[in-house]
Specification:
The complex is a heterodimer. By secondary structure, chain A is mostly beta strands. Chain A is 0% helix and 51% strand. Chain B is globular, with a radius of gyration of 13 Å. Chain B is 0% helix and 46% strand. The N and C termini of chain B lie far apart (37 Å). Classes of the chains: A mainly beta, B mainly beta. The interface between A and B is medium-sized, with 29 and 23 residues.
Amino acid sequence: ETGVTQSPTHLIKTRGQQVTLRCSSQSGHNTVSWYQQALGQGPQFIFQYYREEENGRGNFPPRFSGLQFPNYSSELNVNALELDDSALYLCASSLPTQETQYFGPGTRLLVL
Amino acid sequence: DAKTTQPPSMDCAEGRAANLPCNHSTISGNEYVYWYRQIHSQGPQYIIHGLKNNETNEMASLIITEDRKSSTLILPHATLRDTAVYYCIAYFGNEKLTFGTGTRLTIIP
């Protein structure tokens, strides 16, 4: 069974740029959640996708957007990057009938 | 989601049992107690979860008090690889996980 994978592992962008982060869910999992983890903090929920639709959103501005594809993989897009967007971005997948979310290794984004 | 309270840090000697407490006095009847850990800069790793009964798996044991207001995660024989931040989360259904600041557990050789 393949676990959750994320790409890229590290990324450096400059303020104002746009970034796309990718996540492949664990085999058979059709729900994907994204989290942002700033240095020294716990992960904060960004949004969740189920059956290609947004299924819940945290307190993040609209410049954070996402997609889910028919194969359940997902993208997180962030427009107009700000310095405070520097963080570890985590993806977690789960089955709708089970509560447990399984996390990928994360993408570390640095905005200069 | 109910708020959980954990000590910010703990030490444990290698080979001893590590007992990590968590208070969740406002937990509702349908919320599970979930434990994750995060080793430096990696994604959180699921450890165990429970509703009312004590649970055990290959990684740890979870003891939940009868009134469900607190719980303890037990790592029976701690190793250096168990050094991590441990998060206790009260969680219902397939929704968002609300992480606090967790407990930083350091295993001492």
